[in-house]
Amino acid sequence: MAKPKIIYACQNCGFQSPKWLGKCPDCNQWNSLVEERFERAAHPRGEISLGSKEEPASIGTISTAEEGRIFSGLSEFDRVLGGGLVPGSVVLIGGDPGIGKSTLLLQAFDALSRASFTCLYISGEESQRQIKMRAERLGVTSSQLLILSETSLERIIEQIKKTKPSILVIDSIQTIFSSNLPSAPGSVGQVRECSGSIIVLAKKTGLSTFLIGHVTKDGSLAGPRVLEHMVDTVLYFEGNGGHNFRILRAVKNRFGSTNEIGVFEMKEAGLREVNNPSELFLSERPLEVPGSTVVCSMEGTRPILVELQALVSPSFLAVPRRTTIGVDHNRVALLVAVLEKKMGVKLFNQDIFVNVAGGVYVDEPAVDLGIIAAVASSYQEKPIEAKTVLFGEVGLTGEIRGIAQAEARVKEAAKLGFARCLLPLSNSRQLSHVKNLELTGVSSLAECWEVLF
To answer: Which of 87, 193, 308, 399 fits a 20 to 30 Å CA distance from 288?
Structure first.
């Protein structure tokens, strides 16, 4: 038998070195290299054949018919997955501790088990009694939902073959270990090998699998980066501690779009779906107040109306502050420069604060017009009409450019009772058939200024 050797593996990116280094040369993280024993031994995938008996086929003869998707019972969850859960797919879910990852999957599993699917929930962090206590709080009582508290990969695979579930959850992948590897649970080698074995098993048996992953201090998924490449879908469950809203966002999806988001509200009895997030984000909006505007942002195929607030006040600092929450800081600096140059607004001695109410983040160019309008409104102490919604991209020469999916944005604004929409002139010409609200097309900041102020 070959003599085992010692290697040092980075716990952040998976880089391996024959000697210890204080700083990882790949990801530049300090004190991230940990000693691991490396030996060539039979690993848990020895029993699972990686080969396939398929023969090469002409691309014209391959069937493209999609397999039937499994609906979880949570429409927001299915939206992010691309229309439902694909049999045999592997989904990795990450998020901050306590954000609600386990709660989300328990609620989805309850709905799936009521639809006659056998669900196996494996936890390496909690006992069966702890999971039962949470399930009682959430009202989860289905007998088709099986709970197992286990951390050994070999025993987990044995239970999967024994119970033959339709859907599986591993909570979390960092707690699972294989006895064939000498390294500790959570190390790069253990995470890579355990997840690889589970993924191969899922692909061969058609078992839909969810892997819950921890996140690092900077918000990225812990463990080797290759883990995100191995799975089919990567979801992030995001939220702000000061708000009850939770946003489920896909950053990788082989079976659907990565632009969709799902919005949930955390309640005492679990997560509640928010089918109309625009109404929720605008529920506490102050009316006829300077510095407040409503913009329409697209998240995938869903238009969302959010309140954008700006505060402009005289600065007593040598360098005035520019603080942004929910929008890109550099984008705001660029728009402020355009406002100063093209409209003659003196903002060089003003502190500017921009915030998107509700804790959401908007990053598309269509909110440019709303940012400029909010800053100008606060500077001039002139409120914008409460029933007005704005969207449009602003160029460096002060022109207002057209944006995509304008009709969907206008329909969402009309549905929520807005009476006027300020939008690019090129988009307004294409929407002449819209009669349920007033459309005002503008082609430059000067025209927008005349309309608003």
So the answer is: 399
